[in-house]
Amino acid sequence: MAVLIEDRYGPRFIYNLVKRLKVESFLDSSTSVKCMQYNAFKLKTALTASTSSYDRTVVLIDCDGNCEEGNSSQIINIIEKSNHKSIIQVHLKWEIEEWICVGEGIILSSEKPSKILAQKLKYEKKDLPRYADNLNIVNLKKSSNSFSDFIGALS
């Protein structure tokens, strides 16, 4: 299966997370995942490539607070127009860093999670991949719909 994510450092984060999910038996060890970065302008090409090469494509969508506006609505439109049944959308209310916040017990507000993390933990985007090693997966499964959706999409 393929996982498409917008964030530049996202593929490495997802790769590390999937590896950990396998080790901790949240995911079958035989699950094969290819992680790729995409942007809204090249999404059609990425979807065509992934749907022809993989049985399933999971697309993580940063909604930046509202999935019905901005880039996220364009991305959702592109996916729906592609009409592939093998594409699963996972809507992140804000961005992938919300999983770090939820896992750390940091309460999300109307501010982007990456900004909250920068203030509280001196987080920088380039640090994203290493956070996969410390996520509280049990707490995330209970508290984050998007994380539960992601695990479901991988299973």
Could you outline the blueprint of secondary structure elements for this entry?
Elements: E1 2-5, H1 10-23, E2 34-37, H2 43-53, E3 57-62, H3 70-82, E4 87-92, H4 97-104, H5 113-121, H6 128-131, H7 137-143, H8 145-154
Parallel strand pairs: 1-2, 1-3, 3-4
Helix pairs in contact: 2-3, 4-5, 7-8
Report on the structure:
The protein contains 8 helices and 4 strands. The chain is an alpha/beta fold. The chain has one domain (2-154). The chain has a 4-stranded parallel beta sheet, with helices on both faces. The longest helix is centred in the N-terminal third of the chain and has 14 residues, at 10-23. It is globular. The termini are close together.
- Overall geometry comes to globular
Helix and strand sequence: EHEHEHEHHHHH
Classify the beta-strand content into a percent band. Answer: 5-15%
List low-confidence stretches: none
Q: By helix and strand content, what is the structural category?
A: alpha/beta
Count of DSSP E strands? 4
Query: Can you summarize the main beta sheet?
Result: 4 strands, parallel
**If you average the pLDDT, what whole number results?**
91
Distance separating the two termini: 10 Å
Number of domains: 1
Strands side by side in the biggest sheet: 2-1-3-4
The radius of gyration is 15 Å
| Total DSSP helices | 8
Helix share bin = 40-55%
